Amino acid sequence: MKGFVVYATYRVENDKAKVYLFGRLENGDSFCAIKSFKPYFFIKDSQTDVFKLINTGIKFEVQASDFTNFKGEKLAKIVLNNPKEVPSLRDQLLSKGVECYEADIRFAYRFLFDHDIKGGIEIEGEFKQSSLVSRIYDEPQISGAEVNVPLKVLSIDIETDRNAQKIFSIALYSEALKHAYVVSDKEVEGAKAFPDESALLSHVLEAIRLLDPDIIVGWNIVDFDFKVLQDRCRKLGVPFSISRDEKMPVYVKIKSEFMRDSEAEVPGRIVFDGIQLLKASFVKLEDYKLDTAAKELLGEAKAIAFTNKREEIELLYKNAPAELCKYNLKDADLVYRILVEKGFIDLAVARTKLTGMLPDRIKASVASLDSLYLRETRLRKIACMTTKVADRGERIKGGFVMESKPGIYGFVSVFDFKSLYPSIIRTFNIDPLSNSPDGEITAPNGAKFRNNNGILPVIIERLWEQRELAKQRNNNIESQAIKITMNSFFGVLANPACRFYSLDVANAITSFGQTIIKKTAELLRQEGLDVIYGDTDSIFISLDLPSFDEAQKVSSAVVGKVNSYYDAYVRDNFGRKSCMELQYEKTFIRFLMPKIRDSEVGSKKRYAGMIMKDGKEKIVFTGLEFVRRDWTEAAKKFQMHLIELLFHQKDLKSYIRSYVQDITSGKLDNLLVYRKALRKDVSEYTKTTPPHVKAARQLQTIDNPIISYYQTVDGPQPLELIKSKIDYEHYIEKQIKPIAEAVLGFYGESFDEIISNSKQHTLFSF
Prior knowledge:
Distance between the termini: 78 Å
Low-confidence stretches: 758-766
Radius of gyration: 30 Å
Number of strands: 32
Helix content: 25-40%
Mean pLDDT: 91
Structural class: alpha+beta
Strand order of the largest sheet: 9-10-3-2-1-8-11
Number of helices: 20
């Protein structure tokens, strides 16, 4: 029977370690596969005599192996009984100067690596039934498999009193169950009523066990829903038992720091916080409130828009419990549809199938590279070094960002190298294993690499081919998963927590990237083209041509010229095949490259342009205030229309004056809200106190790290508690003026003079 693993752990029974794998089978049954397995690591065969010198107090055996280290030195295998004793034995050996290899791999993941399991599994053997899972396999035959198993997802949402000391209602939403449960001594329409919290909790927890979900989701589910459920269960003496193994309790650990996620572990199942899953999928929202996400992703709002949620929930429970339950169920419904119907659960599963990291660890980019690399070295009978977390000293060199030529342009074509860093790794065989002082390939930073089959290039080539196939099948989820995975490798090599950490190797990638962008710009200038900007993997060319069609024709020729150049350059200088490919991305029909504020120097990573899309004009912003969350909606609206007028060569002055007047008259108050994220607890801001922190300190409770506030004449005040007059002068000076002057500077005009009506002619009348 084939299936998909969602959770892996182990237990030691009678001095024998057993791996427990939980998941869903292709026939729809849930399963637990239990398999004996021994932990192990490697040391140099030449150093095994060390055991004559130390008395470890640990049971282990030394076995011969056919593995070597990166230098080709023969290794011996050290096999233990208890995984928890590996660190102790490793440290004792290190204290004697003995290098240990792969002595830090999580035990359950070691099992997955050795059996080539990337989520998909094939199980052969007898099974018995259980009340918590459909099938329990004891010591079956296990191997990796390609599978497509639908997982059961359950969305949970709870409503409580203002202090979260009493649960009013709980909603459960899944494909098979859509229901709300409420504490009430009367019948409640659309919900099942219970006389007290204990009865409510007991019933809901039993409903979860019977539904047997693989994945439990919610919005802020760990920090709120699970925390409250655990606290109330403890208080009322109700076992918080929703795991797939009665001997493994639910574990909830709350982290107070905003930069660290709280954790909930339900053995046998995955718990996904919708907020964290969206962030892990690189979805950017103005804030991560459920209402915001639902409007953006589903085009729907929550059932009720509260002004003071805590108080109004209590009133609703008292006066209209049916409405509260309807609201409660709608929240659970929205979370389910955002994560399931919009493909975020599928994306997490796809990333597991690619990297072998189970869905709850897909964000672990260091571990993802580990998983792929260690599987490959195992096939080559090579053992990797044990991770030694290094101090972060010198920072990695970034990509090359060219000084731009500021101006307002007509046609500007943009080109970029397809997945530049992964293609550089493939082209020049950049890899921890191939990195060697006697390597034939020398990177611009001086790092050397042997011209053989490195492991990282092989992994990337395999992923690259999978992505092309995914694109052909129009499988956007799989394509996105592969892109995320490939692009993470470069950053991982520069992370001191990575076992392959090497600034030489990481900087070899960026130094090649810098060289390629500079060479490309030089090549195009030799062809008589006006290169106005370049950034990491892209090149911008201004084309002084009469039509859009001619601009596209020249752009196509540029692609062919550059790619032919690199094919020859790599072949002649490195004896390898170039995997680098310049692509034509788009042509702007109008383009603005601003200057750095109060300077004549062109800005970097900040521009706006107009493109044609589906026969309509569309303005695209990069790096400017319009796309930054810490600028107000008033500033964004102003910038959008100002650029639109600029590109159509219409009068800017009257618009600037009228917009300033609208602000000072109070017409745009609802657009003047600042939104800024807290990066740590407010008590930890000691050296400086930014405005959003000052506003946050005025709040009794902070439910969201995104602080919304106004700048008033008495300083920053939170949106919920504003009591002073808005400081309109601040918004005009700090939000509107900088945006206006970025454009006006090209015409020798002054914002201050325009709003004081000192000049009467329009910008485009001369």
